[in-house]
Known about the structure:
alpha/beta, 7 helices, 11 strands, globular
Amino acid sequence: MGLSAVIIMKDEERNIRACLESVRFADETVVVDSGSRDASLTLAKPIATKLLSRPFDDFASQKNFAVSHATQDWVFVIDADERVSPELRDEILRVIAVPDAAAAYAVRRRTNLFGRDFIASGLQGDAPLRLFRRGKAVFQGLVHETLSVDGKTGKLNAVLTHRSFQTVHEHLEKLQLYTDLEARRDIRKKSKAPAGRFLLRPFWRFFSIYVLKQGFRDGREGFFYAILSSFYESVRWMKRWEIDERA
């Protein structure tokens, strides 16, 4: 059984080469760029099997477009800031060789923020569906997209390394796009944003991450993450309120 590795990117010169190197075991690598202005394309071109371009509208559409260009029996979707470990590589190759394997598999992620591998903060159970039979799954959702699978799912044991934002600046760069998409998603529900949610959600977000999900176990970096997540929630709901006021 063949394997296609699929990646979407924009301005990922810090990450794309290492990401692509980690999936060299795949039979083909499909990369879809959405207008990079840095050296991402130059770095990806010598390694990628297919290097395509598409304007970005939302994450699900972008990933579904990339998957549509995969030709192998199995597809593994990886973000530019992620790396496949040797253990995960070996497990993927074993799974796709089994005739009665499930339709899709979740992959445990170990997230690194601010240079620290997190063990709590709500990230300890992170295991998105990433490996699937071509034609058996489709991404849904404008942001924080999920995979809808036709068939049984399983879970791999090895870990996918996720090197997320390392600085406050990197977080703020992503915040603008993600909060815009979340506001668009919420508006599609055609309901006004309750004032109480605008006031209370940022505080709840911090409390949930730092206390309930034990973010304090991740030290100073866990506190930073909880604070930035609270700020993210504030911006998200302010944008939603702004749209509601104009309607």
